[in-house]
Structures are given as C-alpha cells and as structure tokens.
From TrEMBL:
The keyword Hydrolase applies. This is Alpha/beta fold hydrolase. It comes from Kutzneria chonburiensis. The keyword Phosphoprotein does not apply. GO terms for molecular function: hydrolase activity. Residues 38-296 form the AB hydrolase-1 domain. It comes from the Bacteria. Keywords: Hydrolase.
C-alpha cells in the first residue's frame, strides 16, 4: 500500500459522512464501478459504532463501508443517569422511555436518506436490523443492490419480529431465559440492564451472545448497548413484499452457533422467503465482532 492509499485509509476511518454514520474511505476510480458500497444496519439496543471492527476490515479490503445509527440510538441514544453506577433500580423499572415512539418508518427514513447520498448499495442487517433492511427494500428497492441478513430477522410468512420470536423455531433461544428488567407496559420499551453485575445473568449473556469470545470481549460488547429498544420495529409488519422488496437479490449469513437466534429460526426464515444465497459462519450472535475478518471476506465477495 502506497502513501496515498494510507492517507486515504486514515481519512476514511476518522471521517463521517453524516450524523450517526461511521464511514470507510472513498473507493478508487478503478474499483467503485465494480464494488458497490456496503451500508450496515445494527441490531437491538445497539449502534453503528459496534460494527467498527467489521467496517475496518471492509475498508482495508478497499471497500466503501458505513454503519448507520438508527433513530434513538448511537449519538442519539438514551443512556439515563439510572443506568450508570450506582444504578437506581427504582427509576429503571418506572421511568418511561423517551424513545418509545421511534417507529419502523423512522428507521426506513434514516436508512433511505443515507442510501440516496451514497447510491445503490449492499444493505446489511444484523439481528433486529434485518427488519429495517426488509422495510427499506419494500420502500426503495431501486436503492438496494443486494440485501444481506446476518443472523437477522427476515419476515415473510411470519409478518413481524414478534411473530418470529414467538414461533416454535425460536423455542430454544436463550433470550427467553433472561429475567425481565422492567414491565414494558410501564416503561413503554423493551428495557434490559446490560450493566448488571449478576453473575448468573452475565453467564447467560455470554452463552447466548458470545460463546466464541472472551469475558472481556463480552463486557466490551454489552458495555456500549443502551437499555431501551422501542417496540415499534418488532410489532410492525416488516415482511418482504413480492413486487418490491421481494425482488431484491438477497443473501443470508447463518451464524451456526447462535443461541440467541437459533439456527432453526434462521432456517425457517430462509425457507419461508426462498431465493436466498446462503453462507455459514461458525459464530455466536455477536459474530459480527468475533468473526469480523471472516464476515468481511464474505461480504467483500458479494455484488
């Protein structure tokens, strides 16, 4: 790599294309026409920043890569005083979430606004981010060159994320074993205390999300998660529509060791939707971090 390329890489890693967006460097004239940009949509309670290891790996392969912050997340995220140490457990169980009103349409608007700036892109959704990917494909299929679901929700027969979560194929999900942090009817959001010191909960988190990582990696991953996730995305119909989003080429990356989103559910969604190009990565749910290099290599091969 020559000096000019190194300067371009450094500028790309530190620059931002817009609020809430983590970017890679501009593609060179020789590669831009062959390799579309990649836009990554984060999962529940997360942000674009959590995908920096993946973005960095893609950038080092010469790709334009971005990870968007969805509304109410990342730079706009909700990190209340009661979530800090020492935690106020009463407020945690009673304070109404200020991001409760964020909807699937809000997510679509945010992603489409980025796609209009960078041109048709490969849209990559992880976990709950898959619901937004499908909704964007329905709303603006001309802006999505390929939809990629990375251990993510892809609804068709099962119309909503809630339906998928309640399906028999999800019965083995360890997410079902997490003790509730607060009554959703009171706080108006899916609230979880990622900063708990309960050793049993931490052990369950490790088993569910990062069995292929270390305790330190798990702490780093959950340390950046915010407590609230709006219900709007999970309750909304995000099914691919045959005449719009269903026509977009799609890839599914199965995380074969995922115990948050079991392989049975991933397979059900693949079977329901059909027409998937399927790839396997031996990873837990947070494999986007622990297997970033492998995943980047796979994504780099897509067109």
């Amino acid at each position: 790599m020559n000096r000019r390329q190194l300067l371009g890489l450094a500028a790309g890693v530190t620059a931002a294309a817009g609020a809430g967006v983590v970017t890679g460097p501009p593609a060179s004239a020789a590669t831009s026409h062959r390799k579309p940009p990649l836009l990554i949509v984060h999962g529940s309670h997360g942000s674009g920043g959590a995908y920096l290891p993946l973005v960095n790996e893609l950038v080092q392969r010469g790709r334009v890569a971005l990870a968007v912050d969805l509304p109410g997340h990342g730079a706009e995220g909700y990190y209340p005083v009661w979530f800090q140490a020492p935690q106020d457990l009463h407020a945690m169980t009673t304070e109404v979430s200020p991001i409760a009103g964020v909807s699937l349409q809000d997510n679509v608007d945010r992603v489409v606004s980025v796609l209009r700036r960078i041109g048709p892109a490969i849209l990559v959704g992880h976990s709950l981010g898959g619901a937004t990917v499908s909704a964007v494909c329905n709303a603006a299929p001309q802006l999505v060159q390929r939809a990629v679901y990375v251990s993510a929700y892809c609804c068709t027969v099962l119309k909503t994320v809630v339906e998928a979560f309640q399906s028999k194929e999800n019965a083995d999900s360890l997410m079902l074993k997490f003790p509730p942090t607060a009554d959703g009817a009171v706080v108006l959001a899916n609230r979880f205390n990622w900063r708990t010191n309960d050793p049993e909960v931490l052990s369950l988190l490790r088993e569910a999300y990062m069995a292929d990582g270390t305790d330190a990696q798990l702490r780093a991953a959950i340390g950046g998660l915010q407590p609230d996730e709006p219900y709007g995305v999970s309750l909304s119909d995000c099914s691919l529509q045959p005449t719009t989003g269903g026509r977009v080429p799609r890839t599914y990356v199965r995380f074969t060791q995922d115990r948050a989103m079991p392989l049975a559910l991933q397979n059900r969604m693949i079977s329901d939707a059909g027409r998937f190009d399927v790839h396997d990565v031996h990873a837990s749910h947070f494999g986007v971090m622990t297997r970033a290099a492998e995943l980047a290599g796979l994504l780099d091969g897509l067109r």
